[in-house]
Design goal:
The protein is α+β, with helices and mostly antiparallel strands.
Length: 101
């Protein structure tokens, strides 16, 4: 027996085409939910504690946005700590397995 959840409305900017004025102002995109920042106030002028109005992600989760292609420019790269920890973990597992065999 599957429980049916009520349908929720789509987020305000999700799946909507932007007007020419919005496309001109679109400078950043939230990498978590895809919210395109196209407000009249420039993104750089927003407070440090600015959060995504759609998903409440912090300002650091926004990336530059190319309105022509509709994609993020550059994006967010994997932190070096995550890469080093993954490599160290794999090396540790390989050493442990080599000791067992």
């Amino acid at each position: 027996d599957v429980k049916r959840l009520p349908k929720s409305p789509a987020p305000p900017k999700f799946g909507r085409k932007m007007s020419a004025a919005q496309r001109e102002r679109a400078t950043h995109i939230c990498v978590d939910c895809g919210f395109v920042y196209a407000l009249p106030t420039p993104f750089e002028d927003q407070d440090k504690d600015y959060a995504c109005p759609q998903c409440s992600a912090p300002r650091s989760r926004f990336s530059k946005y190319d309105a022509e292609t509709g994609r993020a420019v550059g994006g967010v790269s994997t932190p070096i700590v995550t890469t080093v920890a993954t490599v160290a973990g794999l090396a540790g597992m390989a050493y442990y397995i080599a000791q067992i065999l």
